[in-house]
């Protein structure tokens, strides 16, 4: 009799005793694992370096600024950055021609850059932008007619792709330091160059060593598009300082003389949203 009772007690056992893990309430599971999974999912999606579909940080479309508005904006940036103030006497002869007004019929994006520059050069665009031979006494080697200045090497490459229709016979020259040695660029500047695209520091270095000439320079195109963090040529700290050093040293006097035009390509930058100041500074360093 005792043996029967023992067997009955051993046969009837709750399933929870065999698998105690199954008996747990799923709502009591640790939440850390779920957070980690969510973080992994967000890391997979990467945003492009420059987003031209959004013109402003608040998502609103921005209307193209007039020539006078662009000039006023540029002069304020110049004064705040390097303390150079252009007097009314200096400005009066050049105020109507020193800043290029682009066509409002075309968006100011990468794919339309070549067309905008073409229209800026007028009827002589083919001779100025497309010919590939040096003309003695008229077209010096290493002296572009147009310089495109942007905040990074990546952006410079993007803008060069937008110039493809104009650079089949005479390729646009890459004027940045990433993966390019100065010696290589000096060698390329011994040929005819119609358009150059690069960053302020390398452009200035090539001018300082007299490899990049300015005898033909008619227009500087300043890329105003902001990157995904909201920074542009005029707002990214180190690049901003390098640009104004380049402009003050090499371009400002030519603008005052009326021999050089300025083209602000893209929306005038708004102040970036600095929610994570420390993290952004660490990334830049």
UniProtKB/TrEMBL annotation:
The lineage of its organism: Eukaryota, Viridiplantae, Streptophyta, Embryophyta, Tracheophyta. InterPro entries: Cms1. This is Protein CMSS1. It comes from Brassica campestris (Field mustard). Pfam families: CMS1 (PF14617). It comes from the Eukaryota. Residues 1-12 have a biased composition (Polar residues). Residues 33-46 have a biased composition (Basic residues). Residues 1-68 are annotated as: Disordered.
């Amino acid at each position: 009799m005792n043996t029967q009772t023992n067997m009955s007690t051993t046969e009837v056992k709750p399933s929870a005793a065999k698998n105690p893990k199954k008996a747990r309430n799923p709502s009591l599971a640790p939440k850390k694992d779920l957070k980690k999974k969510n973080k992994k999912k967000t890391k997979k999606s990467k945003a492009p370096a420059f987003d031209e579909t959004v013109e402003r940080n608040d998502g609103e479309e921005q209307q193209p600024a007039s020539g006078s508005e662009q000039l006023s904006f540029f002069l304020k940036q110049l004064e705040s950055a390097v303390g150079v103030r252009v007097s009314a006497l200096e400005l009066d002869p050049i105020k109507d021609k020193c800043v290029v007004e682009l066509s409002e019929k075309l968006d100011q994006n990468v794919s339309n850059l070549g067309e905008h520059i073409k229209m800026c050069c007028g009827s002589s665009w083919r001779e100025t932008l497309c010919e590939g031979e040096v003309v003695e006494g008229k077209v010096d080697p290493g002296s572009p007619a147009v310089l495109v200045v942007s905040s990074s090497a990546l952006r410079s490459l993007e803008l060069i792709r937008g110039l493809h229709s104009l650079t089949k016979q005479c390729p646009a020259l890459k004027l940045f330091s990433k993966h390019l040695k100065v010696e290589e660029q000096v060698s390329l500047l011994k040929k005819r160059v119609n358009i150059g695209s690069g960053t302020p520091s390398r452009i200035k270095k090539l001018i300082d060593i007299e490899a990049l000439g300015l005898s033909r320079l008619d227009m500087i195109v300043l890329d105003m598009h902001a990157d995904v963090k909201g920074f542009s040529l005029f707002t990214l700290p180190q690049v901003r300082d390098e640009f104004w050093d380049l402009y003050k040293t090499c371009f400002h006097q030519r603008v005052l003389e009326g021999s050089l035009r300025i083209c602000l390509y893209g929306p005038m930058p708004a102040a970036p949203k600095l929610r994570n100041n420390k993290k952004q500074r660490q990334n830049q360093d």
